[in-house]
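Changelog-adjacent note: as of this version, every example in the card shows the full chain rather than a window. The one below runs 432 residues end to end.
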Amino acid sequence: MSKPHIIVVGSGWAGFYLAEYLSTTTYTVTIISPRRTSAYTPLLASAACGLFNFYLAEEPVRSKTRKCRFIKANVTAVDFASRKVQCAPAFEDDDTISNEHFSLEYDYLVLAPGCIPNTFNTPGVAEHALFMKNVSDAMALRKLLFDLLEKASLPNCPLARKKELLHIAIVGGGPTGVEITAELDDLAHHELHDLYPEVAHHLTISIYDVAPYILGAYDRKLHSYANTALLRRNIGIETNSRIERVDQHALYIKDKGRVPYGMLLWVTGNKAVPLVTNHLPDVRKTEKGLTRILTDSRLRVYQSQNPDEIYDNVFALGDAADILNNPLPTTAEVAVQKAKYLVSYFNTTLPTPAPPTTPFTYRETQLVSYIGSRDGIIAGKKGEEGDGWTGRSAWLAWRSGSVMWTRSWRNRAVILLTWMLNLVFGKEIAKM
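Full-length structure tokens:
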């Protein structure tokens, strides 16, 4: 008797966790994703700035200890009646193979395709900005940073040009944007100061956000503390900024005009992938804000034709999905907790899962952000009013927490060892 076939669409936080822990002795598990690795997104900024090697910020889906099947492709459609997914190979440099579509049958389908960066259709962003979604993005950031430093170091580069080249514009004042700012600022004041003494002091960082303040997910006390700390280190914070367009060398901001930059990082939020927006007409979705697949409290997908009916054998989770009447943020923590719920469901109701009886319950965790110079902020607990905490202890909590994102004990050990070596000898920045 053949094993039930579970197809997981996506290899992000949710999809990779399912690949890691679903029972392959009971199920045939297939992962379909355009990316053969899963990035530990909280570690990307640290890897980009040399705290540890790039390979520690991602995990390959294929592994000799992981018995699931991996297919590098995009799912382009789902036939829920015949239980088939239509796929297109994901090889942008090979049009012939990319057009050789195929289909796969499933017994259970898990939709976790994730999201893509939201440019808000701002002209020029897709062509000229860097994003921070995977290791290739972090590598591009590192390469561009050193190219800019070398250009600014040329003997015939005028001062005004140096300042333009070494202006890093970060669009997005959420935790990702602030943490990238913090890591870059630390790098500029330490290793870059020693390596590029003639030009490092010209490097400036500015955060641009349409909101009235940065780190809006925190309460006023904490985001005000972060704002003050960043300004103290001469980091520009330009809130209420509406970017109208971007070209190769400058931002164009309403009421502020042209702002030259050398590097533009765009970390403003998420946008649904084409599979969710265009290719799942039979699935019920959110009507406002980010387009997400709607599920019940047991993560089963609602039908669009019969809005109160669900597909018994189709589940959705991660950034691309949300629970009806119980919206949750698009964070790694939410994705992993939902993945744990599904793994427990499949692995403990063998061999033929009955409908889940216990609903998913999200266990809220503390929100933590690094703001640079070994300082951080944490929402909740500590203090008489439980209004959060700041300082070096918050930084240590953030740093230790980032280690636990990687699920490999080997990688955790290597990261810790690298941090110890960095403390003693400094970062191996010359090899970056």
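Structural remarks: The longest strand covers residues 69-79.
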